[in-house]
From TrEMBL:
Name of the molecule in the record: DNA-binding transcriptional regulator NtrC
Record carries keyword Transcription regulation: yes
One Pfam family linked to the record: HTH_8
One Gene Ontology term, aspect cellular component: cytoplasm
Keywords, comma-separated and alphabetical: Activator, ATP-binding, Cytoplasm, DNA-binding, Nitrogen fixation, Nucleotide-binding, Phosphoprotein, Repressor, Transcription, Transcription regulation, Two-component regulatory system
Species of origin: Arenimonas metalli CF5-1
The gene coding this protein: ntrC
Domain Sigma-54 factor interaction: 144-373
Boundaries of every Response regulatory domain copy: 11-126
Length: 471
């Protein structure tokens, strides 16, 4: 069962023993701005009610192994007679169950149902003042948007996998939503009430990573004044999300492998054996098989993390999701700025669908936020979009090369290379010179002027790179 959502927003419960229905329906309702809790067993829902949690609307299945939907409805109505309930049932069962529910249930939903229909039903069944459109701050931060077959397939996989205590490896280009998927796996799992702890392996200096993961005792190393509880311990009972796992230094890969195999470890400088129960969800945008082949990633660690693999398609392979994602981000941004909601002109929407999205969903999200801040009117025109996309293009190319440089440096450092500065600088010079020469059709003097260098410097640098290239 899961709990998300801001207190005070409209809270919906979904009770169904079918994981897929539970997940897909809960996501659609979250998407519409509701706070949703999902229960696989009606008795869990009744326990939450006894704990003082109050839903505004309940969706329930009829045939469930622990307690049947009719008995559940009776128990609900005994406590909350005014509570609206939507009963979901296989089409063939509707006639037989309808009589039994008469006087109790508000609405029926025959399975299989259309998600839009379910969301519309929720809006109808809720008291008018609480319908989704009237929500002041929709709880939509964590819900995954996606209607394309690829995303629906992914949602079904999340529903199936969430219950299994297996390690999962999420692959996908940067910005495709890997962290959001990891959060959904946690939220839908029996661990949902325990912590979700995220660690970006690439963002932490290698020498600190070990103590970040496993903690340290006071005095374990210079600067360690106090005991520090590591992410593994923080995530006990819950989920540890290891982002950019491909960047983990070799020595730590070995340690992580051991901890995953044994489920226990010592803090850095510690003597006490710490035992934890953690589900690890790892993510990467890199080709880990290639890293295994070139020796920079351990094959046995890959096997342990990669029990199940979820691939997140890049946005260019699911452009059908662009309009819904854009609408979500525009609404979120408007909400945050307290500004009126904006929408794209149909021509601008078409342009969005033509774009290739190298930065994936994150690029679309950033673009929408910028447009909400900058575009004057309520409708974003093709021209406004065009100039925002152009400036996005320059920043992302500029970001890309520095990111690529950082990555090259990281890999070289992890390999133990020395003399990095000279090697990378030479590569930098070479790329710059070749590009300038290409621009000036091979005219050295002109290329030197464009770059702000003397002609001799250009000749010398070219000579150096050519010499190095020839065997
Ligand atoms: N399907 C989706 N629905 C709604 N929002 C999404 C979706 N996918 C991604 N986002 C949003 O896009 C942004 C990037 O997503 P996220 O951080 O999960 O990507 P990532 O693949 O983990 O990126 P990186 O590899 O760079 O860490 C986040 O703000 C996230 O909320």
């Amino acid at each position: 069962m899961t709990f998300t959502g801001a207190p005070g927003s409209t809270r919906l419960w979904v009770v169904d023993d079918d994981r897929t229905v539970r997940f897909v329906l809960a996501e659609a309702l979250r998407d519409a701005g509701y706070a949703v809790s999902a229960f696989e067993d009606p008795r869990q829902a009744l326990a939450a009610l006894a704990d003082g949690e109050l839903p505004d609307l309940v969706f329930t299945d009829v045939r469930m192994p622990g307690m049947d939907g009719l008995a559940f409805l009776d128990a609900l109505k005994a406590k909350r007679p005014e509570l609206p309930v939507v009963v979901m049932s296989a089409y063939t069962d509707i006639a037989s169950t309808a009589g039994a529910f008469r006087g109790g249930a508000h609405e029926f939903l025959s399975k299989p149902f259309d998600l839009d229909e379910a969301v519309a039903l929720a809006a109808r069944a809720l008291p008018a003042a609480e319908s989704a459109s009237a929500l002041p701050a929709p709880e939509m931060g964590d819900a995954l948007v996606g209607e394309t077959p690829a995303m629906r397939e992914l949602f079904r996989a999340i529903g199936r996998l969430a219950q299994a205590p297996l390690n999962v490896l999420i692959t996908g280009e940067t910005g495709t939503g890997k962290e959001l998927v990891a959060r959904a796996l946690h939220r839908e799992s029996p661990r949902a009430r325990k912590p979700f702890v995220a660690l970006n392996t690439a963002a932490i200096p290698a020498e600190l990573l070990e103590s970040e993961l496993f903690g340290h005792e006071a005095g374990a190393f210079t600067g360690a004044q106090k005991r520090h509880v590591g992410r593994f311990e923080q995530a006990d009972g819950g989920t540890l999300f290891l982002d950019e796992i491909g960047d983990m230094p070799a020595s730590l890969q070995t340690r992580l492998l051991r901890v995953l195999a044994e489920g226990e470890f010592f803090r850095v400088g510690g003597r006490e054996l710490i035992k934890v129960d953690v589900r690890v969800v790892a993510a990467t945008h890199q080709d880990l098989e290639a890293k295994v082949r070139d020796g920079s990633f351990r094959a046995d660690l890959l096997h342990r993390l990669d029990v199940v693999r979820l691939r997140l398609p890049p946005l260019r392979e699911r452009k059908g999701d662009v309009p819904a994602l854009a609408a979500r981000f525009l609404a979120q941004a408007a909400n945050k700025f307290g500004a009126p909601a904006k929408r794209f002109h149909p021509e601008a929407l078409k342009r969005l669908e033509r774009h290739d999205w190298p930065g994936n969903v994150r690029e679309l999200e950033n673009l929408c936020w910028r447009l909400v801040a900058l575009a004057p009117g309520e409708t974003i025109t093709l021209r406004e979009l065009g100039s925002a996309l152009r400036s996005e293009g320059t920043t992302s190319a500029a970001d890309d090369w520095t990111r690529g440089l950082a990555q090259a440096a990281r890999e070289a450092l992890a390999r133990g290379d020395t003399g990095l500065h000279a090697a990378l600088r030479e590569r930098f010079d070479q790329v710059l010179l070749e590009t300038a020469l290409e621009h000036t059709d091979g005219h050295r003097q002109l290329a030197a002027e464009k770059l702000g260098l003397g002609r001799n410097t250009v000749t010398r640098k070219l000579g150096a790179t050519r010499r190095r290239k020839s065997p």
